[in-house]
Amino acid sequence: MSNPNSTANNLPIDARTTTSRRRLPNFNWKGVKPIPFFISIFIGLLLRFAVPKPHSLTPKAWSLLSIFLTTISGLILSPLPVGAWAFTCLTLAVITKTLTFAAAFSAFTNEVIWLIVISFFFSKGFVKTGLGDRIAMLFVRWLGKSTLGLSYGLVLSEAVISPAMPSTTARAGGIFLPIIKSLAVGADSRPKDGSARKIGAYLIQSQNQSASNSSALFLTAAAQNMLCVKLADSIGVKIPNRWVTWLKASSIPALISLSATPFILYKIFPPEMKATPDAPAMAKRKLEQMGPVKRDEWLMVGTMLLTVALWISGEALGMTSVIAAMLGLSILLLLGVLDWEDCLSEMQAWDTLAWFGVLVGMATQLTALGVVPWMSKCVAKLLKSLSVNWFGAFCILQTAYFFIHYLFASQTAHVGALYSAFLGMHVASQVPGLLAALALGYNTNLFGALTHYSSGQAAVYYGAGYVELHDVFKLGIAMALINIVIWGLTGAAWWKVLGLY
Fold it and tell me: NCBIfam families recorded for this chain (predicted)?
């Protein structure tokens, strides 16, 4: 009989080696990232089985806290995309009977979450119709004769757009970064070379830092704002007439900070080019190319004005914010400004629905099972033992909430992980609930430019390559401290006038 291996044995050694290598299986792993996965799981298991359960909590509450900790660890370490990881952890909670199916998915019918989803569709309308670009170019044409004026034009245009476009990442990537890059290249300022500081780096940083205040100004200017409101409501802190109350409390400190930010950065991170005489001409050419305001743009303006008016007057009319948003979206669909394919293709909206629903559901159940009240009482007792009054507790807790964001790569993940617990600590320390809820919400926006990974828009702007990493960190902490001073001083005075404390 012939030896089946004779052919292979007669091959040269190099050929035999090549043949052997070809027979080895090719492990091209496409699933979960193993190291982040095991770390996230280990953290949850460590709490569940190695840390003694407090007597005041039930085994189910302790199990849910461990699963929640695993969820948050995964949001930070990213073993899977956010929505996929959140869904997997929710599945774990149901399989282990820590939560019933109804309790696990109860948050998916929450009004605030659907308001966030619909707001993403409004963002799609701004981009699709070109209305966002037109508004930005109008401000550039009016104010863009100098680099400082150009910055103010971009900042003000974002503030105008923000209440109807609740994603700072979408505003950054879809509207403002392309405009800034076009302006910078037109001035021979290019990333990652000696010309970056000419104009591009300043405009990038000014827009990035100012976006945090634009997001804090309006309730619907950022998705995390609406999540904060929902979580506050879930632990018993009611915010009356939400849209108006949020705007009244934020208006003075946010507008002052918005006005100061471009000028402060102009002094501490100055552009080499001070005058930009070509920018208004470029904006004029762009507007001429766009032509007159089109039908869909007028319809987008009219629909958003109606929707915002209903958000403002909704309480008097008996119409909730989400119903007003549903009406606005329905009008855009009926008039053909948006079609259903536009909504289906807005993946960020559906992804947000998935993982926001998981986080809100878990946070609500943690409160219902007594975990958040227990944590709040522990911290309140500690502060009381140190003889800290409610104002001192407010300052300590707000500062801790702000700077712990160095550990997070997402504002919404930060809110889901810590907002309820920190608000509970405020309330247990006798801090007025409405003041605590709003201040934590504003803080959630202000730390969005702390690092290059602290928010979606920060990552977008850093990715443009105009600003060195060490400058990102230096300017992040400098502007963070400046914002804390502005919001702390003007906010304290204004909130006293409003009767928040």
Answer: dass (TIGR00785)
